[in-house]
Amino acid sequence: MKKRKFSVSMSAVYFCLVFWAITTIYPILWVVQNSFKAKNKILENSFALPVGDLFTFANYRKAFENLNIFNAYKNSIFISSMVCVIVILLAGLASFALVRYHFKLRDTLYMLVVAGMMFPAFATVIPVLTMETSWGIVNTKNWWLSMLSVILPQVAGNLSFAIIVLSGYIRGLPIELEESAFLEGCGPVQIFFKVIVPLTKPSFATVAIFSFLWSYNDLFTQMFFLGRPEARPITRLLNELTSNEGTDYGLMAAAVSLVVVPVMVVYIFLQKYIIKGMTAGAVKG
Amino acid sequence: MGANIYKNKKPLFLFLLPAFIFMTVFLYYPFFKNILDSFMQIKQLGRSGEILNEPWYSNYAKLLTDANVRTALKNTVIMTIVTIVGQVGIALVLALMVDNIRHGAKVFRTMFFFPIVVSATALGLLFNLIFLYDTGMLNQLLSALGRKELIDWKSEKWALFTMMLPVMWQYVGFYFVIIVTGLNNISEELYEAAAIDGATKLKRIWYLTLPLLHNVLCTCVVLAVTGALKVFDLPWTMFPKGMPLKSTFLTGTYMYYQTMIVKDVDYGSALAVMIVILGVVLSRVVNAIFKEKDY
Predict the structure, then answer these.
(1) Maximum mean pLDDT: which of A33-47, A166-180, B1-15, B43-57
(2) Residue B124's Cα: distance from chain center in Å?
(3) Which end of chain B has fewer CB within 10 Å, C or N?
């Protein structure tokens, strides 16, 4: 009797969990399956699998011909990689200094870093745009400058978080290793690159993943800084697509699939690190 | 000994300067400049304001009379409540469930977290297709279940629901992971002791798990509130320009609308200042209600 009651409540629990899992996964599968159907067929029965007559590559052909998706990918990946690399380097150096050196302004600087987390992008974007316009790097023909104009504010936006996570980790490292490196004649710069960086790798991975994804998905900053078509990253392109081709459902489904599927593949392989990276800031406080 | 290595303070500047120059130029300075800007006349995006507004507080007077600001504030407050109750609430229930199962906890975690890595813009497009009137996934599902009339999910009546549901849905997995981590930190012995004392499962959750999770839930609520104020991508993709009839503005999307579409740049700055103040006020309120406790 007792055993049966147990299994009834257990199946209810599993039912709820599976239900939520379906809501998180099925919409993606649904859009992928519909991206292989002619645009007018989606509206008849979207739950049918795209087999036999239903199957077509037309949406993808159109996506590649009209949308310049490869260029958008190139822009997105370039921006996010640069943001990621610069954030790791600058935040790594700064956290090392904030943890290991004792100096007067240390606590003040650390408070400034924490305060930096509180500034929403809304509150800084207009002056940053004004400043960069006066430098002549916003919406110019030069592709490199356009990329730079969005990389700079995105780096600044990620530094606070990165410094907090990294300095938390470096604080926990034993100082003995640095001491022995020092005895063998290493200066602080060498200690940083040869001792600290290798030991802090897991934490660097966390920060790297977080800043890469954050930059890759950040539509708001991109809407302000990247107006020219050749400089458009993926999110910007998708946003454009809604306003211009809002009724071509096949094309929309194909575009969404092209953006989501690569992310899904990367997620399957790196999920452990990604989940850790995205929640690290929260757990650490 | 350790102090010896780092006694020479010269390299310190080399380490600190790059990061702090970045933050000063792109974070601290613009933050204060933005407050000044909100009192200035700015003719065009990208130009700086030179003369004060007439009167200098005119943007703030406008904030008080602007009906759209009221809509945006109202929607943002609703959004905050939805994220607290919906995201953290659902995440808590799911986490408690996963804590009780023997198999598959890892798989569920992976699946629940997935929407967070997908860009909100792509999800906006996806949900546009799902909520399509004639006839997206939901309306097809409803008619398969026997419903005769289709629901216009983007009409005024349903718009807020249609906008907030995906936002809520996307981040449940985030809080789920945080709460599960918190649950794993509760020692098994406490539960065993309670079981020996004859506490039922529900009683154990109510008297043991929830009080012990208090601080974790606090963190979640604070994050949910600050997150709710930052929402932009998904609403702007699904309901650009506050459609329908400017009824779906959030503070963030309205700030973008004024700055980039109406091109009233200094008013946009004032709205950004309002968002900051709102953030401070809301997190104070949350902290007062859910005070962190030490055990």
Answers:
(1) A166-180
(2) 16
(3) C
Residue B22 in any domain: the answer is: no
Tokens 């996010």, residue? A80
Percentage, residues of chain A above pLDDT 90:
20
- Report the CATH number at residue B247: 1.10.3720.10
Q: Do the domain assignments include residue B124?
A: yes
A101 located within any domain: yes
Specify if A266 maps to a domain: no
Give the total number of structural domains in chain B. 1
Query: What CATH number has the domain bearing residue A170?
Result: 1.10.3720.10
| A 194-253 → B contacts, CB under 8 A | 213, 216-220, 223-224, 234-235, 238-239, 241-243, 246, 249, 252-253
Residue B238, domain member (yes or no): yes
Alpha helix (H) residue ranges in chain B = 2-5, 10-23, 29-37, 58-65, 67-82, 89-100, 105-117, 120-130, 137-144, 159-184, 188-196, 201-204, 210-230, 233-238, 251-256, 265-289
pLDDT of amino acid A105: 87
- Regions of chain B short of the pLDDT cut 70: 1-3, 292-295
Residues 155-174 of chain B whose Cβ lies under 8 A from any Cβ of chain A: 169, 172-174
Domain span at B216: 53-186+212-289
Residues of A in contact with B113 (CB under 8 A): 271, 274-275, 278
pLDDT 10s digits, B247-282: 889 999 999 999 988 888 889 999 999 999 998 898
Separation of CA A241 from chain center: 21
Full-model pTM: 0.87
Task: Say if A124 is an interface residue toward chain B (CB within 8 Å).
Answer: yes
Nearest Cβ partner for B23 among A156, A192, A267: A156
In whole angstroms, give the CA distance from residue B263 to residue A236.
Answer: 20
Each residue's pLDDT tens digit, A193-242: 888 899 988 889 888 988 898 898 888 998 888 888 888 898 888 888 87
For A178, the domain range is 70-233
- Residue A239's contacts (CB-CB under 8 Å, 6 or more residues apart) are A219, A223, B121, B124, B236, B237
B96, part of any domain: yes
Residues in B closer than 8 angstroms to A127, CB to CB, are 29-31, 33-34, 37
Cβ-defined contact of A238 to B125 (cutoff 8 Å):
yes
Please tell me the predicted confidence (pLDDT) of residue B74.
93
In-domain check, residue A16: no
What's the ipTM? 0.85
